Known about the structure:
Layout: E1 12-13, E2 20-29, E3 33-50, E4 54-62, E5 64-67, E6 73-76, E7 81-84, E8 89-94, E9 98-105
Antiparallel strand pairs: 1-2, 2-3, 3-8, 3-9, 4-7, 4-9, 5-6, 5-8
Domain Cupin type-2: 38-102
Pfam families: Cupin_2
InterPro entries: Cupin_2, RmlC-like_jellyroll, RmlC_Cupin_sf
Amino acid sequence: MKVLxxxxxxxxxxxxxxxxxxxxxxxxxxxxxxxxxxALQPGGTIGRHPAVGRQLLVVLSGEAEVAGAEGVxxxxxxxxxxxxxxxxPHETRSPGGMTAMIVEGDLDIGAPGEQVDPGDV
Length: 121
């Protein structure tokens, strides 16, 4: 078993799309999917941009304010997630700071209560 400390990964700052106080650290890459650890400083913003693929943002600590194509802002806390579809414009802000994990690419994301992986039979 290997244990990853997402906060200790090397992060690089991102300023594209008007982002500020935003950094990412990649920790998993596949042919059609990648996983990154995300940090937003207090008052940080991931500027509005289109999702390259289906994108899942899972809040690990702190709080996020997220919006999709419709522009309606939703507040997310630890253990909550947002999903954006390919090409959907979206943005994320965090008044108090946040750490999260983003999975982006060719994803099947189940509805609440839906079993995505049937497991061993």
